[in-house]
Amino acid sequence: MTRVFTFGGQSCDAYGLKCLTVDRSFLPPLTARTVAVPKRPGVWYLRSDLGPRTVNIGVSLIKTDLVTLTQAKQVIGGWLYPNNQIQPLVLPDEPDKTYYAVVDINSPLILAAAGGSTTNQPLLYGAGSSILTFLCPDPYGYGQQVTAQFAGDVLSPNVGGTAETYPTISLALTAATSSLKVAHSSGLFVLLNYSFSAGDTVTIDCVRQVVTINGATALTALDISSDFFALQPNNNTITITPSATATGSVAWTERYL
After folding, report:
1. Which residue from 238, 220, 237, 219 is spatially nearest to 181, judged by alpha carbons?
2. DSSP letter, residue 163
3. Digit-coded pLDDT (tens) for 200-236
4. Domain extents for the chain?
5. How far is CA 241 from the centre of its chain?
6. Which residues contact 194 (CB under 8 A, 6 or more apart)?
7. DSSP 3-state assignment of 17?
8. What is the third-level CATH fold of 6-139?
9. What is residue 142's predicted lDDT score, i.e. its pLDDT?
10. In this structure, are residues 52 and 29 in contact, taking their beta carbons and an 8 Å threshold?
C-alpha cells in the first residue's frame, strides 16, 4: 500500500515525493511545573504543560536530470512555504486524524544522489532521500466532529479521543427566564443573567470563550462565577437549569494526544 501524507490539503505524491517513514514522539514534550517550598524536601508539583509536537517524515524524490530536479524543488518549496499560516497535516498511519503544522526551519530536507550522504550535501538529481520536519504548535491530533442533542434538560455524551476537548453549546429558549445555567459533571458551569424570552438563541463557545445571545456578543450577561468547561474522554453529563427553559445541542471535535 502506498504511504501518502497530505499537507495543506495536497498530497505529497502530487509533487513526486514518496513517504518512507513517519516518526513522532509517544507524547508531546512535557514540562513539569513545580514550586519549591521552604523547609520541605523536593518540590510541590503543580501540573505538566504540553509543548509543541514535532513530526519527522522520511521522503524520497527521484528525478532523471538536474533540470527536472530543480523544477521539482521550486514547486515543492512553494507547496511547503509557510506564508505565516498553519496548515492541516494528515499522516498515512492516522488517516482519521488531522494535525496543524508548519515546516520547521531546520528541516533537513536535503535530497542527495543514491548512495550518497544526506548530511550537508547539495541537492542532486537521482534517487535521494531525507527528512521533512513539521512543527505542530498545537500538539493535539483532531478527529471527527460530533454533535449530540439534549434530551430534555440533560445530555450525557460519550466523548471519543484521549484528551479533553472544548464544546460549543447551541440553545433555543422555550420559555422566559431571568437566568440560564449550563453545568458540566466536573462541577464547572456557565451562568448567564439575562432577561430571556421564548425564541431567544444562545451560543456558548467554550473554545473561544465567547457567549452570544441572538447572534450578538453578550459577555456582560456572563456571571463572574462562570467557567468555560471542557469535555473529558468517555462519559460526561451536561445539565440545563432552570428546567424546561431551553433545548439544543452540543458540538465538539475529538482530540488525541
Report:
1. 238
2. B
3. 999 999 999 999 999 999 989 999 999 999 999 999 9
4. 6-139, 142-256
5. 31
6. 178, 179, 180, 213, 218, 221
7. strand
8. Elongation Factor Tu (Ef-tu); domain 3 (2.40.30)
9. 97
10. yes
Residues 6 or more apart whose Cβ sits within 8 Å of residue 53:
24, 25, 28, 29, 99, 135, 136, 139
Residue 130 near residue 110, CB atoms below 8 Å: yes
CA 33 → CA 41, 134, 208, distances in Å?
16, 26, 25
The one-letter amino acid code at 194 reads Y
Could you report the per-residue pLDDT of 118-177, keeping only the tens digit for each?
A: 443 334 344 567 788 999 999 999 999 999 999 889 999 999 999 999 999 999 999 999
Cross-strand pairs, 155 = 238
Cell numbers at 134, concatenated: 513539521
Return the beta strands (E) in 185-245 as ranges.
Answer: 189-196, 201-205, 210-213, 216-217, 234-235, 238-241
State residue 15 phi and psi, 5-degree precision: -110, 10
Plot region of 58 (φ>0 → left; ψ -120 to 50 → alpha; else → beta):
beta
Residues 165, 251: Cα–Cα separation, whole Å: 10
> In the structure grid, which three cell numbers stand for residue 239, read together?
445539565
- 7 grid coordinates: 499537507
Q: Find the distance separating the first CA and the last CA of the chain, reported in whole Å.
A: 26
To the nearest 10°, report the CA torsion of 222, 228, 234, 238. Answer: -10
Look up the CATH number of domain 142-256: 2.60.120.860
Residue type, 80: L
Task: Please give the single-letter amino acid code of residue 24.
Answer: R
CA neighbor of 24 nearest in space, from 93, 106, 95, 96: 93
Are 100 and 89 a contacting pair, CB within 8 Å?
yes
